[in-house]
Amino acid sequence: MKKITVVNGRQREQRIHTTDGQSYTVEFKIGDSYRVYTFHNPDTYSYFYSDVQELKDFVAIKNIFENELKKK
């Protein structure tokens, strides 16, 4: 994924590097369909790439699971 910004009329690629963090894997089975989604540091990447809806959706799913686990 690339994030390009314009500074003083010139394009500049911004990058993000994480050296540690969390990984999440979510598996879904609906009928005969099966999907696996894995993200590393989704909160960090969702903040940096704020225009990527897939990252926002995954963070929302992660938060639902975290909140449900805290209730128990």
Description:
The chain is elongated. The strands form two sheets. Strands 1-2 form a two-stranded antiparallel sheet. By secondary structure, it is α+β, with helices and mostly antiparallel strands. The protein is built from two helices and four strands; from the N terminus they run ββββαα.
Keywords:
2 helices, single chain, 72 residues, two-stranded antiparallel ribbon, 4 strands, two-stranded antiparallel sheet, alpha+beta
Instruction: Give the class from helix and strand content and strand pairing.
Output: alpha+beta
Low-confidence stretches: none
Oligomer state of the chains in this structure: single chain
Average per-residue pLDDT, rounded, comes to 89
How far apart lie the N and C ends? 37 Å
Number of H/I helices: 2
Count all strands and give the number: 4
**Strand and helix order:** EEEEHH
Order of the strands making up the biggest sheet: 1-2
Helix content: 25-40%
Q: Choose one word for the global shape.
A: elongated
Q: Number of folding domains?
A: 1
Strand fraction equals 35-45%
What gyration radius follows from the Cα positions, in whole Å? 16 Å
What's the story with the biggest beta sheet? Answer: 2 strands, antiparallel
